UniProtKB/TrEMBL annotation:
Keyword Secreted applies: no
Domain HTH arsR-type: 6-101
Keyword Transcription regulation: yes
Keywords: DNA-binding, Transcription, Transcription regulation
UniProt name for this protein: ArsR/SmtB family transcription factor
CDD domains: HTH_ARSR (cd00090)
Record organism: Methylophilus flavus
SMART domains registered for this protein in UniProt: HTH_ARSR (SM00418)
Amino acid sequence: MKLITHIPEAWSDISDLFVALGDAQRQRILLSFDKNERLTILQIADSSQLSRTAVTHHLKVLERGGALQSEKIGREVYFWVDKDRMQQALQNVMTYLKEDI
């Protein structure tokens, strides 16, 4: 067994992504997006059973985890799925699983 004193850079975002994906409400929010769709907080709240405050919280967790990106345009904030970032984080896990330890 080797002593791990720091987390490798390739793994830096994985924990936050797994936390973000580990909640059923956040999974529902993420799965509500169509391909290349951008949605506002209000649109997401309207299509869920959650309050706007709860949706805002979940969106922050998803964004921090790398599952979503956002952009403020005027008074609205638009969110979209960041599949490239999620795919990279999961690829880092797959690379680890394939390595001979």
